[in-house]
Amino acid sequence: MEYSEVIKNARGCIGPYCKACNVCNGVVCKNTIPGPGGKGTGDLAIRNYRKWQEVRINMDTLCEQKSVQTKAKLFGKTFDYPFFAGPVGAVKLHYGDKYEEQEYNDILVSACSKNGIAAFTGDGTDPVVMTEATKAIQNADGAGVPTVKPWDLGTIREKMELVKKSGAFAVAMDIDAAGLPFLQNLNPPAGSKSVEELKEIVKMAEIPFILKGIMTPGAAYKAKEAGVQGIVVSNHGGRVLDQCPSTAEVLPSIVEAVGDEMKIFVDGGIRSGVDLFKALALGADGALIARPFVTAVYGGAAEGVAAYIRKIGEELKDTMAMCGAFSISEIQKDMIWKY
């Protein structure tokens, strides 16, 4: 199955918000983007994608011809490629009723694991979302990263028990979800966390803790102070605050600040293996891609996920070969061009 066929299949069952576009760039859905919706005009989701396109590749084929190796080691595990399925929760609510939460997560987590990467899973106001996500990870022998919303500490403690039971090799929190309007109406409300609160959460985790939603060097330093082992440079897909810079724009300064201290991932508008190459050249250890994996599941189940992973992987390998990088460690900043 080719990914073009996956997209075509998805269009008949993924509505009403997602249109299963050929390229998921935010232009069509704007502030109605699934997830649910986005604040303001939807400007930032579009900017995320477009800024990656403004980074160009420095081609150089004056080198010895060798096979390209794309394996990457992260948190003690070796993956075929340095990219992961990003966290998406409540898919039945936001993407259509083709799949129940358990079925969707079982397909995604298992297919990612079988095809050499890992899936981050989502969380939601309905406790079932996290329960089913962690069950799927447990069914896949811990080959996934559950992502916990920034709830109050008591709720987080309950969620961490599910995480531990799943055997997951790492856990994440999308602190940028603090900007989602529906989280503000809870009692107690979910939201931002102090460094001291994060220290307590990291201690609860007992496994590598990844904090998603870092957009400044200052925030990266605070994450380091809290003891996290990895961060994701992310603005929550451009859905929580208009008029921010894109992740491509802020990634270099964050890498410069803490790149030697922790693993750095990036998401937001990365839609090809070429984009992934750019992120690695700018200093990221890996990238997350979220919504296209939903399309992959809805349009082709496990086979659709495999097709999408294969597409991104082949594009990455081709770009590496054309730039003279034959392993992930050989990808350097001088292989890209920014005007």
UniProtKB/TrEMBL annotation:
<dbReference type="GO" id="GO:0016491">
    <property type="term" value="F:oxidoreductase activity"/>
</dbReference>
<dbReference type="InterPro" id="IPR012133">
    <property type="entry name" value="Alpha-hydoxy_acid_DH_FMN"/>
</dbReference>
<feature type="binding site">
    <location>
        <position position="236"/>
    </location>
    <ligand>
        <name>FMN</name>
    </ligand>
</feature>
<comment type="similarity">
    <text>Belongs to the FMN-dependent alpha-hydroxy acid dehydrogenase family.</text>
</comment>
<keyword id="KW-0560">Oxidoreductase</keyword>
<dbReference type="Pfam" id="PF01070">
    <property type="entry name" value="FMN_dh"/>
</dbReference>
<dbReference type="GO" id="GO:0016853">
    <property type="term" value="F:isomerase activity"/>
</dbReference>
<dbReference type="InterPro" id="IPR000262">
    <property type="entry name" value="FMN-dep_DH"/>
</dbReference>
<protein>
    <recommendedName>
        <fullName>L-lactate oxidase</fullName>
    </recommendedName>
</protein>
<dbReference type="InterPro" id="IPR037396">
    <property type="entry name" value="FMN_HAD"/>
</dbReference>
<keyword id="KW-0413">Isomerase</keyword>
<feature type="binding site">
    <location>
        <position position="234"/>
    </location>
    <ligand>
        <name>FMN</name>
    </ligand>
</feature>
<keyword id="KW-0288">FMN</keyword>
<keyword id="KW-0285">Flavoprotein</keyword>
<feature type="active site" description="Proton acceptor">
    <location>
        <position position="236"/>
    </location>
</feature>
<feature type="binding site">
    <location>
        <begin position="267"/>
        <end position="271"/>
    </location>
    <ligand>
        <name>FMN</name>
    </ligand>
</feature>
<dbReference type="GO" id="GO:0010181">
    <property type="term" value="F:FMN binding"/>
</dbReference>
<dbReference type="InterPro" id="IPR013785">
    <property type="entry name" value="Aldolase_TIM"/>
</dbReference>
<feature type="binding site">
    <location>
        <position position="212"/>
    </location>
    <ligand>
        <name>FMN</name>
    </ligand>
</feature>
<feature type="binding site">
    <location>
        <position position="239"/>
    </location>
    <ligand>
        <name>glyoxylate</name>
    </ligand>
</feature>
<feature type="domain" description="FMN hydroxy acid dehydrogenase">
    <location>
        <begin position="37"/>
        <end position="339"/>
    </location>
</feature>
